[in-house]
Every structure is written in C-alpha cells, then in structure tokens.
Design brief:
Helix content: 25-40%
Number of domains: 2
Number of helices: 13
CATH architecture of the largest domain: 3-Layer(aba) Sandwich
CATH topology of the largest domain: Rossmann fold
Structural class: alpha/beta
Largest sheet: 5 strands, parallel
Low-confidence stretches: none
Distance between the termini: 11 Å
Number of strands: 12
Order of helices and strands: EHEHEHEEHEHHEHEHEEHEHEHHH
CATH class of the largest domain: Alpha Beta
Bound molecules: phosphoric acid mono(formamide)ester
Shape: globular
Strand content: 15-25%
Length: 316
C-alpha cells in the first residue's frame, strides 16, 4: 500500500479489519518490520488521538517517529503555483514536501478544510500536493473531506462488539456551536456503505452530505425512525454542504439522550472525539454503560498499525 487516503485505497476491507484485530492481540508481532524506517507525522491542525495513536502504532512496528506541528512550528506554506511569494508565505509546498520525503520513509499528513470554498476543499489540494511532491507513501491523518484512519478504527470497533452478524449502524447529526468539517461523517458513510452492516444516516433537513459518500445508505430526517432497533449509533456534528460550511438555525433537540435510546437494540454509542459535553452528547450517555467512545479511540492504534504494516511491507 503506497497511499491511504480513503476506503478506495483498500482492496479488501474485511481483511484489513481482521489484521487490525490480530495486531490488537499481538501488538509486537512485527516489531522488527519498521527497523531503520522513519515515520513523519505532519500536522497542519491540532490533534490528540491521531497524533498519539499513529505514533504508538509506528513505535510498535519498530519505526522511528518524527512529529512536526507545521501550523505552529513550521514555515507558512505557499500552496499556489506561479505566484510571487511576497506575502506571508515563506516556503512552497513543492520544496517542503520534497524535503520531508528525504527524511521519512512514510509521511502522515493532517490538513483540515477552510470551509469557505467547497470546490477547493473537495479537491483535497493540500493533501494531494503532499502526495505529489514528497515522493514516499502517504497516510491521511484527516484531510479536508475524509478521515480514513478514524473510519477504519470505527469499523474495527463495530466488528469487535457486534452482537448480530449484520448490525444496524446509524450515523446521527448532533448540534454544535461551530461549523465543523464533513470529513468524519463523509468517511464513516463511505466505509459503512462498503461494510457488511445495515446503514442509516439521519440529520435535520439542510445537512445532506455530498452524495458521493452516501451511495447505498438509507437517509432520513426522522431521528426516531433511524434509531429504532439500532445496534450502534455514531454521533457527529457537521456543517452544511449547501450552503457550504454554514450552521443552520435550530435543531438543538437532536442531541442524544437516554430517553431516545429506549427504542434502540441496546445501542452502543460512538463518537470520534473530541466531543462537547451536553451540546453534542449528554453527560448521561458519555458516562453511562452505552458509551464506547474510549474503546473506539483505543482502537485507533490498531487501525493505524494495520495500515502502516501494509505500507512497510510495500517498501521492502
Ligand atoms: N478523532 C480524532 O481524529 O481525534 P484528534 O483530532 O484528537 O486526532
């Protein structure tokens, strides 16, 4: 595997999930695979889980790891071609990415969307330029439109904890005070649409996701209808795709409560984290028995390790 940017880079999802669960059982089984290999984790935006879980995954495989908080410690990057760099940008991504590729065998990149220009965000300009110019395998640590390491960990978690062969999985929109990217719900939807689950998306009118990511999903604006008999409920806020990056008024009653869970099949509650308590998800759910958010975050290590293992195997 030379690129991990979406579900489309994975020929056999079930095999990758199985590999992640195997690594969870035997974390150090491949501790020599990454010997003398270096992983660079490049962050243009903040992170807790992605940074620590991917670093741990690389260390478990015997790799050296370098972390660069590009947004705080790096030079301001120019992304456009054919410009006179007489403004605030100091270094062009052409040189920056090429130099990183000289220091690292695999590069991970996190780059959020600006949420101003949909065409630019959905072209994945920053992530794709890293891929184009660094010359080594690249793993997405969350890009403008997708978060595939999160989605793989989510699928691993569902596979591990499901109590029936084809569980009902629901992605529900939740309230927030800030416009958030569509990367996590887009990515979760496109992975679930290819997994062996019964998948429903529910959101208020106006929060339709780009249909490229939701082919095959049931979609409803009726949250109760969606939650009925659910085995897993994935809670997430996202801003509107149209008008792009906007929050629409109302919908505070979309926050999940224990009362709403009564119609589910004893559903387990998922969230990628970080989560704003009592805005996106209630205390009673996060502190209750139905929440598996920490378990889900722990599985980020095994998802990352399965992907890095495949990348290392492709280097040798
Ligand atoms: N879920 C997730 O990606 O968390 P971080 O933003 O903390 O990495």
């Amino acid at each position: 595997m030379k690129l991990f940017s979406s579900v489309h880079d994975v020929p056999d999802i079930a095999a990758l999930v199985k590999e992640a669960l195997h690594l969870k059982q035997f974390p150090y089984a491949y501790k020599d695979l990454g010997e003398n290999k270096t992983m660079a984790l490049v962050f243009l935006n903040p992170s807790l889980r992605t940074r620590m879980s991917t670093q741990k995954a690389a260390l478990n495989l015997g790799m050296n790891v370098m972390v660069l908080n590009m947004d705080k410690e790096g030079w301001a990057l120019e992304l456009r071609d054919n410009v006179i760099m007489n403004g605030n940008t100091v270094e062009h991504i052409r040189e920056a990415a090429a130099v990183m590729g000289q220091y690292a065998d695999i590069i991970g990149v996190r780059s959020f969307p600006g949420l101003k220009d949909r065409k630019e965000d959905y072209s994945e300009m920053i992530f794709n330029k890293f891929v184009q110019f660094c010359g080594v395998p690249v793993v997405s640590l969350e890009s403008a439109t997708r978060h595939p390491l999160q989605s793989l960990a989510d699928l691993v978690t569902i596979e591990e904890l499901k109590t029936r062969s084809k569980p009902k999985v629901v992605l529900t929109w939740a309230p927030h005070i800030k416009p958030l990217p569509q990367a996590v719900p887009n990515s979760f939807a496109e992975w679930m649409c290819r997994a062996d689950v019964d998948f429903t998306i529910t959101h208020p009118k106006g929060y339709e996701l780009c249909s490229d990511f939701t082919q095959g999903a049931k979609i409803t604006n009726n949250q109760d209808e969606a939650l009925a008999d659910a085995d897993f409920i994935y809670v997430k806020n996202w801003s509107a795709y149209e008008p792009y990056g906007k929050i629409l008024p109302g919908n505070e009653d979309w926050m999940l409560t224990n009362e709403k869970l009564k119609i589910t099949n004893n559903a387990k509650i998922m969230h990628c984290l970080p989560v704003r308590r009592n805005l996106e998800l209630s205390d009673e759910i996060l502190d209750g028995e139905s929440s598996i958010v920490v378990h889900e975050a722990a599985n980020r290590v095994w998802a990352a390790q399965a992907v890095l293992k495949r990348m290392l195997e492709s280097l040798s």
